[in-house]
Write a structure and sequence with these properties.
Blueprint lengths: L2 H11 L3 E4 L5 H13 L3 E5 L2 H11 L7 E3 L7 H12 L6 H10 L1 H11 L4 E4 L5 H12 L9 E7 L10 E5 L9 H18 L5 E5 L10 H16 L4 E6 L1 H5 L1 H7 L11 E3 L3 H14 L3 E8 L5 E3 L6 H17 L1
Parallel strand pairs: 1-2, 1-4, 2-3, 4-11, 6-9, 7-8, 7-9
Antiparallel strand pairs: 5-6, 5-10
């Protein structure tokens, strides 16, 4: 059974309700039809019911079983307005602004549904920037208790790969934090370990990546990853984590043993922490395109309830996978 098939099976075992607000994007509706067909979750689609159904009919997408909620006609609008006003009034929110925002911004509407428990999670980003997905999520849901910062990761499933967890990895941060400092990188490593346990397997082995292995190069960027490794080991002593490592030292047993003898992680890593967003984003896209890997994400970690972003270059099959992952996250929330 493939990685994503395993996740789908977990999603079916305890079905959660996921809200999809981008109903004017055909990929969303095609994905919704497939999610319903496979029984991965209950679905709420945000939009005008007549328009959504008409568009779905044009696409041949069967939305039977989905709930379609129009912010303009739902009887819950006023309670949502009051909630948004109370949460944001210290930042200048008025009830009039809250109503206007909920009526025109379906992402905010979806996040409020998650906040109230009317939905268990949200997936968006096919036609919105990450900032548009993240902003209402942080404003309304906040960070999870004990989490220092919100970050993102990709689950990478590489076919015919001997490395990682049978070819499956977590790459972080590939979609959100542009240039995290050493302490932030340590926090990203801790969150990524938890995400690995939730979505991949029981034993995260975390490599802090660099262009240097254990001091083989001298540079401020190397110092940053070495310090991140030190902080992570001090603040999160239960993690199986090491660095700084070049990618081959992290992944290939013979190279890891040669460059970092005695390291439990070298040559065995399945969670890769990149030094900045440039490296992470380039890295995951190279693996996705050149190795024909399945890339699920960017999945957000550290928000109080599951909200997940999509790459604007995603296809509808990607959305199905992220919905399944979000549903499994919601089971654990």
């Amino acid at each position: 059974m493939s990685y994503i098939d395993t996740i789908k099976e977990k999603a079916r075992q305890n079905k959660k309700t996921i809200v999809l607000p981008e109903t004017e994007d055909k990929r969303t509706l095609l994905a919704a039809a497939q999610v319903l067909k496979e029984g991965l979750s209950n679905l709420i689609l945000v939009g005008n019911e007549e328009k959504v159904k008409s568009f779905a009919d044009e696409l041949g997408a069967d939305l039977t079983g989905a709930s379609i909620i129009d912010p303009a006609t739902t009887d819950k609008l006023e309670s949502y307005v009051e909630l948004l006003y109370e949460l944001r009034k210290a930042k200048g929110m008025t009830q009039e602004k809250a109503r206007e925002l909920l009526l025109k911004d379906y992402l905010t509407f979806g996040v409020v549904m998650v906040k109230t428990g009317d939905a268990d999670g949200m997936v968006a980003g096919a036609c919105h920037a990450t900032a548009d997905v993240l902003r209402p999520s942080l404003q309304i849901l906040k960070t999870a208790p004990g989490v220092k910062l919100v970050s993102s990761f990709f689950v990478m499933n590489v076919p015919d790969c001997e490395y990682g967890q049978n070819g499956t990895f977590i790459f972080a941060d590939c979609g959100l934090n542009q240039d995290p400092n050493s302490e932030e990188l340590a926090a990203i490593a801790d969150s990524s370990a938890k995400s690995f346990k939730a979505l991949v397997g029981p034993e995260p082995k975390i490599a802090m990546l660099s262009h240097s292995t254990k001091g083989s190069a001298k540079h401020a960027l190397v110092d940053k990853m070495a310090e991140a490794t030190r902080i992570a080991k001090e603040q999160y002593p239960d993690l199986v984590l090491d660095g700084e490592f070049q990618a081959d030292a992290a992944l290939v047993t013979s190279i890891g043993q040669s460059k970092a003898p005695g390291s439990e992680v070298a040559g065995n890593a399945n969670v890769l922490i990149f030094p900045n967003l440039d490296a992470g984003n380039i890295g995951y896209k190279l693996v996705q395109r050149l190795a024909k890997a399945e890339a699920y994400g960017p999945i957000l970690q550290g928000i109080a309830r599951p909200v997940n972003d999509l790459s604007r270059g995603c296809d509808w099959e990607d959305i199905v996978g992220v919905v399944a992952l979000t549903a499994v996250q919601a089971q654990l929330a």
